[in-house]
From TrEMBL:
PANTHER family reported for this sequence: PHAGE INTEGRASE-RELATED, PROPHAGE INTEGRASE INTD-RELATED
One example GO MF annotation: DNA binding
A Gene Ontology biological process term: DNA integration
NCBIfam families: recomb_XerA_Arch (NF040815)
Domain Tyr recombinase: from-to ranges: 117-290
Recorded superkingdom: Archaea
Keywords per UniProt: DNA integration, DNA recombination, DNA-binding
A Pfam cross-reference name: Phage_int_SAM_4
Protein's recorded name: Tyrosine-type recombinase/integrase
């Protein structure tokens, strides 16, 4: 079949064919990410970034050059894209080109370093007010769990009843960030509350925090619950689920907990990541008291 674009043009397929190729590539790229074990949130963002890049550059993926990528990143920077977002876009493209397409077009491209900022931390009084502004039940227990264990929102949505050891006051976070498992310590007060909640819970579900149909909550729903609780409590800070994790780590550090223990409890690969909260054996970790018990 004869193409209707000039013969002296580069071998670029008509847009309709390109769109079909993009969909095929994105489908395969998604499969690669799933097999590799990326979290659902990372997978979602990587697909968004690569989809946007492909349609912006508008070329067969295998013909994309370093100059194309630089031009795309420069355009994003000029339109006000933050350095932190550019770093994520760069990470997505690095996997796409280097791992999926086996191309080296991005190897020499550097992005601006993400500015290090201190995490947003709530005071102990604000934590109390946040809990009091939430009705006892699923939502309050969920907020208490995030603060009392330092868990990520992506870990909270996947938490199952079978992951919790009520007697030992511990829980296993399975497939956390970097697909790592870790032990977390649970508050005595939270254990009392969750026992009552699970006993009275009308809908049987494998998930600790579930919807009425038994399915797990989405990260968006949990983020909304946290925002609404902060507004109800009159807290004039940008409060997110991660704010509770930051507060957990900071309050442990303030209480004199060894930073190595905090690193393990948070699931940080590097101590450098944990040390931002300063401006391991399983049995030893079990001796660490949750800050929730000290409110």
């Amino acid at each position: 079949m004869k193409n209707d674009y000039p013969a002296n043009e580069k071998s670029i397929a008509p847009q309709k064919e390109l769109n079909v190729e993009y969909e095929r590539v994105l489908k395969e790229f998604k499969q690669d990410l799933i097999i590799t074990g990326y979290s659902s949130q990372t997978l979602k963002m990587y697909l968004i970034y690569i989809h946007e890049m492909l349609y912006h550059i508008n070329k067969d993926p295998k013909t994309i050059t370093e100059r194309d990528v630089i031009g795309y990143l420069a355009d994003k920077k000029e339109t006000g894209c933050a350095n932190s977002t550019l770093a994520l876009v760069h990470a997505a493209m690095k996997y796409f080109f280097k791992i999926y397409l086996k191309m080296n077009v991005i190897d020499d491209i550097k992005t601006p370093k993400k500015a290090k900022s201190l995490p947003k931390v709530l005071t102990k009084q604000e934590i109390k007010e946040l809990f009091h502004a939430t009705h006892f039940g699923r939502n309050r227990l969920m907020l208490q769990f995030m603060y009392g264990s330092g868990s990520r929102v992506s870990e909270v949505v996947k938490l199952k009843v079978e992951d919790i050891n009520l007697k030992e006051r511990t829980a296993m976070i399975l497939g956390g960030k970097g697909n790592k498992d870790r032990l977390i310590i649970l508050s005595k007060e939270w254990i009392k509350g969750i026992k009552k909640y699970l006993k009275k819970k009308k809908i049987q579900s494998e998930f600790v925090f579930s919807k009425k149909n038994g399915k797990n909550l989405s990260t968006d729903t949990i983020q909304r619950i946290v925002r609404e609780a902060a507004v109800a409590a009159g807290i004039h800070k940008h409060v997110t689920p991660h704010s509770l994790r930051h507060s957990y780590a900071t309050h442990l550090l303030e209480a004199g907990t060894n930073i190595r223990y905090i690193q393990s409890l948070l699931g940080h690969s590097s101590l450098n990541t944990t040390q931002i909260y300063t401006n391991v054996a399983s049995e030893q970790l079990k001796k660490v008291e949750s800050p929730l018990d000290k409110l």
